[in-house]
Amino acid sequence: IAVIGVGFAGVVALLALLAVVAGATGYLALLPLSVGISAPVLAVCSLANRRGANARLARHRLLVVAITVATSVALGLWFGGAAGLILAYFAGQVVALSDAMVMAAGLRRYRRLPSPAALLRLALKERAFAIFSLPAEVAGSLTVHLPTLALGLAGAPALLGAYVRARQLLSLPFQVIGASVAEVFRKTAAERLRGGQGCRALFLRTAAGLLLAGAVPLVPVAVFAPVLFAAYLGPDWYSAGEVARWLIPAVLLQFAVSPVSSVFLLCGRQRADLVLSAITLAAMVAGVGAVWLSGGTPVAILATCVAIQAAGYLAYAWAGWRVCRG
């Protein structure tokens, strides 16, 4: 309750500033603020995961989601447009930052901050994370969002809208579950590696379990997706259900592989992670370009993107299994 109160106090204090900044310079000017808020939250969550505070992390996520959804509805009705939804997003971020501060205070062992010299030594020792992991993350993000850009350039707004809606509805529940599994996997795999053990069995067990767990709900979706989308979203979204059928292989593989992809970092194979990300992105660009130059339809462009994404996740699963020890 105290965290919610602090969060809403911060929201009220920032709403006017955000509205002024957004109105004066456009919403893109708020991106640095979003990154600045997200960075300490992610750092504290990673530290809490290292300390095994999984229940506290679960409460943190539920709190942020509840506040974001509630303020999205309220501010969306109040402003009657995108402004309310964007401000609600920042409301959730303020709550996340407030709760992360409370969570950090509870990690008693880490109350004393390391000296600047210690931080510099650590940064130099682990420089591979910045040199290889950052470009790998950028390449991976571009690969995920390239279909949206390609469909927009192809002049297919209807297909683009159906794709975005289908991807959002299919991925959202799996992202919440996958994030929780990923945290447990990172902690367990790191402990096994520090103890001189391998994590190959854990890798296979986790990925196979996620694959099976994801296939159970996605099989009926593959059969009834257009009917379900039309029933719950309206008849105009029937085509989004058809697109959802095409996305199921990539979504399922992403759900199974993404939570265990941290083995590249845990095993010190950031270079391999970057190479895989770059190859997948290059294949996506080449595939879309080939379809475009040959006069392919927007549907063919989307199908090419989905196929390459699925192949990329399979490559990640194979490479991840290889880098695991034992």
Describe the fold and architecture.
Mean pLDDT is 79; it is low at 1-13. The protein is built from 12 helices and no strands. The protein is an all-alpha fold. Helix 2 (31-50) packs parallel to helix 4, helix 6 runs parallel beside helix 11 and helix 7 (157-194) packs antiparallel against helix 8 (200-233). The chain starts with a helix and ends with a helix.
* Gyration radius, in Å: 21 Å
Could you tell me the mean pLDDT?
79
Total DSSP helices: 12
Structural class: mainly alpha
Gross morphology is globular
* Helical amount: over 70%
Unreliable stretches: 1-13
Question: In this structure, how is the largest beta sheet organized?
Answer: none
Strand content: under 5%
| Strand runs, count | 0
Give the termini separation.
46 Å
Order of helices and strands: HHHHHHHHHHHH
Descriptive labels:
326 residues; mainly alpha; 0% strand; 12 helices; disordered N terminus; 85% helix
Quick rundown:
85% of the residues lie in helices and 0% in strands. By secondary structure, it is mainly α.
Layout of helices and strands:
Blueprint: H1 2-25, H2 31-50, H3 54-79, H4 82-106, H5 116-125, H6 127-153, H7 157-194, H8 200-233, H9 238-257, H10 263-266, H11 270-293, H12 298-323
Helix pairs in contact: 1-4, 2-4, 3-4, 6-11, 6-12, 7-8, 7-9, 8-9, 8-12, 9-12, 11-12
